[in-house]
Design a protein that fits this description.
This protein is of the alpha+beta class. It is built from 3 helices and 4 strands; from the N terminus they run βαββαβα. It has a 4-stranded antiparallel β-sheet with strand order 2-3-1-4, with no helix packed on it. A hairpin with a 5-residue loop joins strand 2 and strand 3.
Length: about 90
């Protein structure tokens, strides 16, 4: 599954220092796809992939002193449109 992770930074400088020192610190099975950061450095939006949603708890525990997380399961719009059509046909 694909997830949109919305991170709200409490201290962007500290987040980037830790990232520089330790990397993303992802557990095995949690894959980073891409990310975007607001121009004011308040939030980061990441796409991640995993078949085990529990891995997010392990990963966020390594960052939750600096970051608040919202994690949302998502699908691309083409897949969503197909799913809606399928649901309306039955």
């Amino acid at each position: 599954m694909i997830f949109m992770v919305i991170e709200t930074f409490r201290d962007a400088d500290a987040v980037y220092r830790r990232f520089h020192e330790k990397g993303r610190m992802l557990p095995e099975g949690l894959k980073f796809i891409d990310s975007w950061v607001e121009v004011d450095f308040k939030r980061c939006f990441q796409l991640m992939e995993s078949d085990d949603v529990q891995l997010f708890q392990e990963w966020t525990s390594r960052w939750n002193d600096l970051v608040d997380f919202e994690i949302v399961a998502v699908q691309n719009s083409t897949d969503a449109a197909s799913e809606i059509r399928r649901m309306n046909i039955t």
